[in-house]
Amino acid sequence: ASGEMHGLIRVRQFTISEGHLMCTPEQLEDEFRSCLELTNYMMDVLGLKEDLTYRFSKWDPNDRDKYIGTEEQWDEAQGVMKNILDDLGIDYKIGIGEAAFYGPKLDIQIKNVFGKEDTLVTIQVDQMLAEKFGMEYVDRDGTKKNPYIIHRTSIGCYERTLALLIEKYAGAFPTWLAPVQVKFLPIADRHQDYAREMMAKLQAVGVRCELDDRSEKTGFKIRAAQMEKVPYMIIVGDKDVEAGTISVRSRKNGDEGATTIDEFVDKIREEIDSKAR
Length: 277
Known about the structure:
The protein has helices at residues 28-46, 71-87, 129-132, 158-169, 192-203, 218-227, 238-243, 261-273, and strands at 19-23, 52-58, 92-96, 105-111, 117-126, 137-138, 144-145, 148-152, 182-186, 209-211, 232-236, 246-250, 254-259. It is of the alpha+beta class. The protein folds into two domains: 19-169, 2-Layer Sandwich (BirA Bifunctional Protein, domain 2), CATH 3.30.930; 182-273, Anticodon-binding domain (Rossmann fold). Strand 6 and strand 7 (144-145) form a beta hairpin.
């Protein structure tokens, strides 16, 4: 242990969904662009895109033992990747010695809450391993050639990305991302059946709900839900049961008054579907 504080970023294991694309030199830029567009889309949806920076990670020719391939292969691969990044208008910095052992990569970086820069996603251009694995294709001229391999992931390491989201939002997730989107708070035991009936209507359209059925004062339940940073609370009392309504309280606006369950379903589904932040 180094004694450093890393928050949730330092993980004991990680899960990553990685794809490998084989392509010809002519296809490389379009495929690389598609990979970057996918990553940028995912980061935009998660609300992380504005925090990203880009690093063009190159090999260190003075530390040859770290890498496979010849100097000519590295010069070619890095030249191809530089052309792609410049054509795409990517504003990047250079990282000497940060390449993978088999090829250069674009590291998509983000700062954590401590101000330290972490790698979130990488897109790697590899012309070494296809030869090692005997991967070939027949080119237009009838000759056999080794393809380029793009190593990519759209969202990075799930655990690290989730840690960054928790730290960025400090637990106050957008409604679409919140583990519990609505918490029902019946004022008394006699209101629980009605609360469950209303909750079932939300669950039927995919809204994640919980019922706080503890025998506690309403103010206590509200404070507990606020501490959990639940986006919406629905408070149910005698007036709601009699009128067939619900009383809504949001994390953002506080008391939003009474409404019907159908109106609330439309409101929250629109908020979830649009992935509003």
